[in-house]
Amino acid sequence: MVLAPQPGLILKTLLPHLKVAAAYARQLQSKITALPAKLESDNFLGAALTDADISIQNLVEVVLLGTFPQIRFYGEEYQKSANTKYFRATDFGEFGDYLVTLDPIDGTQFYLDGHQNYQIILSVLNTDDYEAVITLSPAINHYCYALRGQGVFEGTFEVEFENCKPLQKIPSKAAILLGWGMEKLKPFLINKYPVIDIATSYSKQRQIPNVNGLLGGELSGAIIRSGNLIDSAALAFMAKEAGYLVTLFDGSPVPPLNTCKNYKLPGLLIACNSSIHQDLLTAVKQI
């Protein structure tokens, strides 16, 4: 088996380059235009694509190939990248042979519409679970990372990796987010919680929380139709490390990552306490 670098070392090594990518994304946001939509997506949020998505992925690929040339890597724009063929693999290997994944611009449509809550997400995956996830929010000069079993840490871009502070658990009086395709659950929750459903609430003029609102205090729970390993599932891992409950729709634990198909886990429930989690369980039983 190939000896993989430790997850914390991967994050620490990539962080300066990810900060450069963040500065690039911030600088170009007001100038960026959309590329042709990705045909494989079933909604306009997932279909959005820009030059920034492709350029940031290329930057990370160059750094990985130059620093950790034996690493496994899967980036969202792998089909459009000239570097994909140079990586040893894009899928899971044996336990301990880590897979690095990247969403170069999570929330591309938010980014295109001038909102601030887009981010860069890079993850280190083992066969069973995430080992590490780092997210950078260029518009607000903030990043946070989670290491398996160690919690979540945060800081501004000026703060060094080792000096980040533990993220404090978020209070439970915020809204519930319904991911794409989950809007039918709103009637079963609206009497107890503010509910934001992506399908009908998204606005070019008014920013609404994305899944990253779980860590930023805007959300106390979320129902996600399927957990993409590069973004929503990675954020769910971070939420779990911050103290949230994360399960499948039937309340069972999240299965090993290498059992997923097409880099997606089944539907996820994320809640900051057991009471909210029970209400989310009750809601999904209605469909």
From TrEMBL:
Mg(2+) binds at residues 76, 103, 105-106, 231. Its cofactor is Mg(2+). One of its GO terms (molecular function) is metal ion binding. InterPro entries: Inositol_monophosphatase-like. The keyword Ion transport does not apply. Keywords: Magnesium, Metal-binding. It comes from Rippkaea orientalis (strain PCC 8801 / RF-1). The keyword Lyase does not apply. This is Inositol monophosphatase.
